Fold this protein.
Amino acid sequence: MMSLVMPPVREDVIARRLQIAEALRRIVPDGVVCNETELKAYESDGLTAYRQPPLVVVLPQTTEQVSQVMAWCHGEGLNVVPRGAGTSLSGGALPLADGVLLGLSRMNRIVEIDYLDRVAVVQPGVTNLGVTRAVEGEGFYYAPDPSSQIACTIGGNIAENSGGVHCLKYGLTTNNVLGVEMVLADGEIVRLGGRGLDPAGLDLLGVVVGSEGLLGVVTEVTVRILPTPETARAILLGFPETRRAGDCVAAIIAEGIIPAGMEMMDKPATLAAEAFVHAGYPLDVEALLIVEVDGPPIECDILLARIAEIAASHGATTSRISQDEEERLRFWAGRKAAFPAVGRLAPDYYCMDGTIPRKRLSEVLDRMAGLSEHYGLGVANVFHAGDGNLHPLILYDANQPGQLEKAEAFGADILRMCVEVGGVLTGEHGVGVEKRDLMPVMFDEVDLAHQQRIKCAFDPELKLNPGKVFPQLHRCAELGRMHIHHGALPHPDLPRF
């Protein structure tokens, strides 16, 4: 049962389910799901606390099919929810009971690889790791690497502006996407950006990356591919207190060192990951840091030595540098598997996502421990320490009355604290439905109205992924958009400028 308020359901649309499915089959003959049992596979994304089977699912394979589907739905006044692999952790792909779910998983071709221009052109259903697998034979890779990279897709990465372990040095999705082909709400196909690093004109591509499916449906993506670094090595650091680990993170960056990745786990997460993967983590520490550097061997040697010195000055009790590629990958295996590993600690967990200034890490972790005691719920911390992107995992049991509501309240307090100390509500998971009602904590009415005007420019009828991101979505006319009724402007006698 959803405790979440969503847009009112149109019963007249639900009554037309079979007719809608039949019309969509004429566009995508082999890609429509309407059976109620089969629809359950799409009832949630990675935020499983909220569930809602869609009206119908359509699975196109080409841009032309997406365009036809969008045009038909636009003509019928139907809501459309785009969906990638469904790994989103903010409810961004949560279906609507009266909405068409547009799944892009079958659009999974790599269209072109150009090593001279260092780009790959891919469809949105290609997995994040699939891009690297396609180019690694020529010594290249795709830098953003979310923990779910084996399953999450490039289209979903664009929707949420996903990051990952290596985003500290190489940037988020927005820094690695050069262009997109996109279908607008009425079926029009447009292209934004291209192969150049800095296209002329308004940065509409920057608006689309991270827009959570509210502005259009991406059907093709041009991404940057990078030469694989000559060397990559990692150092494993253990600390007797989380505060010391947090201070060490800030000190490394203050030294002018930008690691390829810098990740932190507290003791509950470390114990769970070690039991799950057997990565060789120390079990007697309260916090674990994994810091990776890459580049020429001599540069890596110098940076690792300096990082080890900084860690020692902050009381590190464990300091181990990877001696070969196998050991480096083993260090990361536990971190990559931390989320599923934490599933051993409780029947359910609620994965949060907020970002804070690095210098406030220690303070926020201490305050989070206090909130854990206040709510009577455990918390395991696994996060991108280098850029202050927190991922607290709140442990609860959904079968116990009231625990889900406690977890939600605990999570909301964490996000309010992130904003209070100078951070933001989300780093890479998006707003979706999870943080939607907290948007006024960070933005005032004027800010939100300006954001909604962008939504109106792309989707005037507000039919794309409604109920997400905005706590209250105003009609476009209410935001100053001129409303034309039956082809006539209001007050036609007044001069227009």
Notes: The chain has three domains: 11-103, 110-227, 231-434. The mean pLDDT is 94. The longest strand covers residues 231-239.
